[in-house]
Amino acid sequence: MSAPAGSAARRPGIAPDRPLPYRLVATDLDGTLLRSDNTVSQASRDALAAVVAAGAAHIIVTGRSVPWTRHVLDDLGYQGLAVCGQGAQVYDAGTHRLLTSVTLDRQLAGLALAKIEAEVGPVAIAASRDGLAGEVLVGEGYVFHPELPVIHMTDTTELWAEPINKLYIQHHGLGDDGLAQAAQAVAGDLVGVTMAGEGIVELLPLGLTKATGLSLAARRLGVTAAETIAFGDMPNDVPMFGWAGYGVAMANAHPELKAVADEITASNDEDGIAAVLTRLFGPVE
Question: Is 255 left (phi over 0), alpha (psi -120 to 50) or beta?
């Protein structure tokens, strides 16, 4: 990847009469825009306000499904499109409408799960149901973020009762990278496999990535990949970096993402996004 010709990534600021360095700013949430306390800093808010004031668009691209994302959007006063569910959902925050939604074939998911368990032994399971109000079902032994709402399953057949966007798996003897690699090796022809954060290995519809959803949203906005700068921190952001014109990894990012980034900024707790955007777009007026 490389920045567009004349990009302000190579200079400290932009003059008002010069073209925008990028027309679209895509930011991941957890570990990227959100700090460790799950808040968005004032510096990040100001930098994003400057982006919008300059005439560019900001789009959130997150592994979280819409129900787990909506409260963050509301806090930001966000009215645009958001890509949720690892690319499965394009959500219009202004009208509270789900514009696109991709579901995981439950028969394929069950087969993939069986192959994974045959390889590594039993795994703890959770599932994200489809829709604007889709619940996250959590099975025995699965450890989830304590601040996010879930429904605890007593019967794993509940997993397959309604359409789902993805499965989450955990293995208490394998690390996240090891589990993701094992799952990819034995079931990668059936489902997509990604690691989205600590304890978050996901099984997705085959071929679905953040880049899939971002490209759909960008098309609606009339923006090209070359006009997009993306920020992220985890391996699930690798496809997004591959699609966008310029990819910025946080200092706290996974080594796999840092390896493909065009730039590494400060951490999510040190206003890394704000540092880059202020350099590119200048401070909010």
Answer: alpha
With H, G, I as helix, E, B as strand and everything else as coil, classify residue 218. helix
pTM of the full predicted structure?
Answer: 0.90
Residue pLDDT, tens place only, 121-163: 999 999 999 999 999 999 999 988 767 889 999 888 888 999 9
Nearest to 166 by CA among 120, 209, 123, 212: 209
For CA atoms 226, 229, 234, 237, the dihedral sign is: negative
Q: Residue holding tokens 């890509």?
A: 83
Lowest mean pLDDT among 8-12, 96-100, 123-127, 139-143: 8-12
Spatial distance between the Cα atoms of 139 and 152, rounded to a whole number of angstroms = 6
Q: Of 58, 103, 63, 102, nearest to 81 (Cα)? A: 58
Instruction: Indicate the helix (H) or strand (E) that contains 183.
Output: helix 176-187
What is the model's pLDDT at position 172? Answer: 87
Q: In the chain, at which residue ranges do the beta strands (DSSP E only) sit?
A: 24-27, 57-61, 81-84, 89-92, 97-101, 124-129, 136-138, 151-152, 164-170, 192-197, 200-204, 228-232, 246-249, 263-264
C-alpha closest to that of 248 among 275, 215, 217: 275
pLDDT score of 93 more than 70: yes
| Beta-bridge partner residues of 170 | 124
Q: What are phi and psi of 41, to 5 degrees?
A: -65, 160
Distance of alpha carbon 282 from the chain centroid: 26
d(CA 1, CA 260): 8
Instruction: Indicate the average pLDDT of the chain.
Output: 91
Helix, strand or coil for residue 28?
coil
Establish how many alpha carbons lie within 13 A of residue 105's alpha carbon, considering only the half-sphere containing its beta carbon. Answer: 11
Find out whether 281 and 14 touch, Cβ atoms under 8 Å: yes
How many H-runs (helices) and E-runs (strands) does the chain carry? 8, 14
